[in-house]
Design goal:
Oligomer: single chain
CATH architecture of the largest domain: 3-Layer(aba) Sandwich
Order of helices and strands: HEEEHHEEHEHEHEHEHEHHHHEEE
Shape: elongated
Number of domains: 4
Distance between the termini: 68 Å
Structural class: alpha/beta
Strand order of the largest sheet: 1-2-3-5-4
Number of strands: 13
Largest sheet: 5 strands, mixed, barrel
Helix content: 40-55%
Strand content: 15-25%
Number of helices: 12
Radius of gyration: 35 Å
CATH topology of the largest domain: Rossmann fold
C-alpha cells in the first residue's frame, strides 16, 4: 500500500515530501518495477566499491543506471564488455534517489549487444571523410606567425569563452577578437557552427579561427562529430584551431582542423605568440650578433699580427716597404670589413629592437592614448556601441589607471 504524503502548512510541501511521494509512486507502478530497456552506453564509471554507474541513451534521450557490485558479480563476462558506445539490453526497476531528486534504473541484468548504432554512425562518417582526404596532413593550413585578428566561435559567456579571452589578454593582448556566437550543443549546433565558419570567412578580416567548447559527456559533444561541421572546417580558407575540452577520443572536428588543442585555453595559446618569449628571443639574437662581431674582429686582428711578423722577418728594405704597404692595405681592408659587418649587425639589431618596440602597448599609451575597459568584466572597449550612459569604465594610461564614467554614448 502506498503511503500518501500529506501537505503541510496550508498546502505547502517540503522538498523531501515531494521526493518521497514521487519515489512511492514510481515504485508502486508495476510497469516500472520490471523493465527491459535497450540502448547505447554513454558515460560509464566503475567505482572502487565495485558498483558501475552509466547512462543508457538513444538518439533523443538518456537514462541514468546503476549496476551494484552484488549483481555485477554474477555476470562478469557481460560486465567486462560494457564500454562507451556498446549497445546493451538491461533488466531492472526504476526508482528515485531522494537526496538528489533524480530517477535511475537499478540494473539487475545486463546483456551486451556489440557497438551501438550511434557509435557505428560516427565511425562510418569518420571513415568516409578520411577516404576523401579531409584528414590528410598535407592539406593542413599554416597558422600566421603574428595574428592581428582572430575569430572565436563558441557559446558567448561560457567558461570556454572566458578561458580563451583570459589567455589572450595574458599572452598576447595586441590581438583583436571577433566573437561569432554559436550553439555548441544540442540540435542545430553543428549547423550553427558551420554557418559561423562560413560567415567569418566571407565577412571578416580574421586571420585564424578558434572553435572551442568546454568538456562534457560524449553525447554533449555529438555536434563535433557531425559531417556538416567537418566539411565546413575543410572548406574554410582560414586555418582553424579546435579546443574541445575532452581528453579521451578526438572528435571528427579535431581530425579535420588544422591544429587540435586539448582545451580552449591551449587553443588560444596556439593561435598567438607569447610576448615574453619574443623578448627572450630578441635578447638571444642580440647576444648572437655581439659574439659574431667579436669573433670576426679577433680573426682579423690575428691575421694582421701574423702578416706583421712576416714583414719584420724580411731583410730587403724594398720588400719590407712593399710588405708594409700590403699590411697597411690588409689592415684597412680588415677595418673596413669589420666596420661594415658591425654596421650590418647593428642595423639588424636595430630592426629587431624596433619590431619589439612596435609591439609594446606602453609605447602607444605614451603618445597620449588610453585603453578603456569595463570595470566589472575587464573587457576592452574598441567600439562606441559597447559603452552605455552612466557606465563606469577603467581608463589605463601610460603611468596607471583611473575610473571614468560615460556621459554621452
Amino acid at each position: 500500500m502506498t503511503e500518501r504524503v500529506s501537505s503541510r502548512s496550508g498546502g505547502l510541501l517540503r522538498v523531501s515530501d515531494v521526493s518521497r511521494y514521487l519515489k512511492q509512486m514510481i515504485e508502486a507502478d508495476d510497469l516500472l518495477g520490471a523493465l527491459s530497456v535497450r540502448g547505447e552506453i554513454g558515460e560509464l564509471s566503475r567505482a572502487a566499491s565495485g558498483h558501475i554507474y552509466f547512462t543508457l541513451k538513444d538518439s533523443t534521450s538518456q537514462l541514468s543506471c546503476v549496476l551494484f557490485r552484488r549483481e555485477a558479480a554474477y555476470q562478469q563476462e557481460d560486465v567486462r564488455q560494457m564500454r562507451r558506445g556498446a549497445e546493451v539490453i538491461v533488466h531492472g526497476f526504476l526508482t528515485l534517489y531522494e537526496p538528489r531528486g533524480t530517477y535511475q534504473l537499478y540494473v539487475e541484468r545486463v546483456l551486451t549487444q556489440g557497438e551501438g548504432a550511434l557509435f557505428q554512425r560516427v565511425e562510418r562518417v569518420r571513415a568516409q571523410l578520411e577516404k576523401e582526404g579531409l584528414f590528410a596532413p598535407e592539406r593542413k593550413r599554416p597558422l600566421p606567425s603574428f595574428a592581428r585578428k582572430l575569430a572565436l566561435i563558441t557559446s558567448p559567456g561560457s567558461q570556454a569563452y572566458h578561458d580563451v579571452l583570459h589567455r589572450l589578454r595574458t599572452q598576447y593582448p595586441f590581438v583583436t577578437v571577433i566573437v561569432a556566437g554559436a550553439s555548441v550543443q544540442g540540435d542545430g549546433a553543428a549547423g550553427a557552427m558551420a554557418m559561423a565558419i562560413d560567415v567569418v570567412n566571407r565577412l571578416t578580416d580574421a586571420e585564424v579561427i578558434l572553435l572551442v567548447r568546454g568538456g562534457g559527456a560524449p553525447e554533449d559533444l555529438a555536434a563535433f562529430n557531425d559531417e556538416r561541421l567537418a566539411r565546413a572546417i575543410f572548406a574554410s580558407r582560414l586555418p582553424i584551431i579546435t579546443g574541445i575540452g575532452h581528453e579521451t577520443d578526438h572528435s571528427i572536428a579535431d581530425f579535420v582542423a588544422d591544429v587540435r588543442a586539448a582545451t580552449p585555453s591551449l587553443a588560444a595559446a596556439a593561435a598567438v605568440p607569447d610576448v615574453a618569449s619574443l623578448v627572450q628571443r630578441t635578447a638571444r639574437l642580440h647576444d648572437q650578433v655581439m659574439r659574431c662581431m667579436r669573433h670576426q674582429l679577433q680573426g682579423r686582428r690575428r691575421r694582421w699580427l701574423e702578416l706583421n711578423r712576416l714583414l719584420l722577418r724580411s731583410s730587403p728594405k724594398a720588400r719590407l716597404r712593399t710588405q708594409r704597404q700590403r699590411a697597411d692595405e690588409l689592415e684597412r681592408g680588415a677595418s673596413h670589413a669589420a666596420h661594415a659587418l658591425l654596421d650590418a649587425k647593428r642595423a639588424r639589431l636595430d630592426g629587431l629592437l624596433g619590431r619589439l618596440a612596435a609591439l609594446d602597448p606602453l609605447a602607444v599609451l605614451e603618445r597620449g592614448y588610453a585603453v578603456l575597459m569595463d570595470r566589472e568584466t575587464g573587457r576592452v572597449l574598441n567600439r562606441r556601441a559597447q559603452a552605455s550612459v552612466g557606465q563606469a569604465l577603467t581608463a589605463r594610461v601610460a603611468d596607471g589607471e583611473f575610473v571614468v564614467r560615460v556621459e554621452n554614448a
